[in-house]
Amino acid sequence: MDMKKFILLTAVLTLLASCGSNDKGELVGVKGKKWHPEKPYGMELIPGGAFIMGKGDDDLAGVQDAPAKTVTVRAFYMDATEITNSEYREFVHWVRDSIIRMKLAILADEVGKVPEDGGIGEYAFKDADTANMSVYEKYMFENYTGLGPTGYEGRKINNKIKLIFDTSEYPDEYYTEVMDTMYLPLEDSYNGQRTWDVKKFKFQYSYMDIQEAAKNRGIKRRDAIVKEQIEVYPDTAVWIRDFAYSYNEPMHNDYFWHDAYSEYPVVGVTWKQAKAFCEWRTIKKNSYQKSRKGAAMVNTFRLPSEAEWEYAARGGLQAATYPWGGPYTKSDRGCFMANFKPVRGDYAADQALYTVEAKSYEPNDYNLYNMAGNVAEWVNASYDPSSYEYTSTINPSVNDNNNQRKIVRGGSWKDVAYFLQVSSRDYEYADSARSYIGFRTVQDYMGTHVTGKKK
Predict the structure, then answer these.
(1) Sulfatase-modifying factor enzyme-like domain location, by residue (predicted)?
(2) CA-CA distance, 335 to 322, in Å (whole number)?
């Protein structure tokens, strides 16, 4: 009898499920929201396609690390310009402000201050009042608060209230105590100015090492998650260290923070800092997407692979020496096409002494600026002189975590023309910062129908 009831109940449920849909019992698949590709701000769509990667002409330098081979890359978006000082400052300020807010919230929690108390209490954790939490936020608070090295993981900081930087307007002694910890000691200051202790500007993030997870099938998911903590402030001393017996103090003092250089490419950033910037940019965009009800999350921003960078730099031109074609570095009007060192000792022959604004000179046919010269660019690849011999011909990528020599491409303001060639390879160590190395980011294009092939 019980079995008959079960069968009858199953039949009724099946009928109800069928009546509640319009598929007429056919297999139609799960229908999601219609996808509308959104071009990221400041980026250009690079259509997927095949190209001849490597040296098409004789390798005059005799390096022999870029033999020509045909490869194919998928479509992606790429920044039209190198990441600028202004854009990177936004990252630095976000990290600084987040750390300050966390310190304020922790101290408010320790001294028992809440928003109604004013002063530092206004910066208390938002979950101090659990009555206004969503079901999900309440679950996260109850299950994850107090776990981790600080004891405050899972707590939500208050991003709404404005931070106060004018010492004369500090609201109370607790606020003063927190802010004082973010500056260098008085004995390290000069000219009457307090300086931020930039060593405290650290960005923490985690990511999954997909390559490792795919190779090691027995690995647990948690063991494939990598956690990083990176100091984000650029090393402004590179302007001094990179050039012995040279007066570059003005660049050290002003280049990163002064508004006169806001639209110039950021330098003094390591490969690891460039990767951290990509992670932050993804978080920033997806935080906005999450605030829009029903908006889809975006793909991660990342550094380009070496193949993607060269494909984009060529701008659709096959066998070209430079992004504009070549083989010359001057236009038919006698003007230099990029910012580099055209004559020994004469950095200004191209009308630029150091870097220039990120949107300078003519863009290539993909509307990308300064893919040659200005600053060399980090890519997500490790340098192996023989890597072209064994890489895949579809989306080739070599990034060995044990190899700290990371590829830089495009040449810079202090390089000779050879390094500006789209096929030339160079490298720097992942933890090194230079006055002539910056970066730009890419994002995967969703779908496969956008290619550079003409119909």
Answers:
(1) 43-442
(2) 15
**CA pair distance 229, 202, nearest whole angstrom:** 6
Domain ranges for the chain, please list them: 35-83+300-455, 86-282
Using one digit for the tens of pLDDT, what is the confidence trace for 287-300? 888 888 778 888 99
Q: What is the pLDDT of residues 14-27, one digit of tens each?
A: 544 545 567 888 99
Amino acid at 321: T
122: amino acid identity, one letter: E
Overall average pLDDT of the 206-224 stretch: 83
Closest CA to 74 of 319, 311, 388, 313: 311
Distance CA 347, CA 353 (A): 5
Q: How far apart are the C-alpha atoms of 302 and 48, rounded to whole Å?
A: 17
pTM given for the model: 0.89
State the pLDDT at residue 124. Answer: 93
| Domain 35-83+300-455 top-level CATH class | alpha beta
Cα distances (Å, whole numbers) of residue 192 to 195, 256, 309, 403: 10, 21, 46, 45
Planar angle of CA 142, 149, 204, nearest 5 degrees: 100
Strand pairing class (76-79; 442-444): antiparallel
**Secondary structure letter of residue 116 according to DSSP:** G
Question: Is residue 390 within 8 Å of residue 103, measured between CB atoms?
Answer: no
DSSP 292: S
Residue burial 407-437, b: 16+ Cβ < 10 Å; e: rest: bbbbbbbbbebebbbbbbbbbbebebbbbbb
Per the DSSP assignment, residues forming a β-bridge with 206 are 227
Chain centroid to CA 46:
18
Confidence (pLDDT) at 455: 45
| Alpha helices (H) along 182-305 | 210-215, 238-241, 249-254, 271-291
Q: Which has the higher per-residue pLDDT, 194 or 372?
A: 372
Angstrom distance (rounded) from CA 98 to CA 92: 10
Alpha carbon distances (Å) from 297 to 37, 204, 237, 360: 12, 21, 38, 33
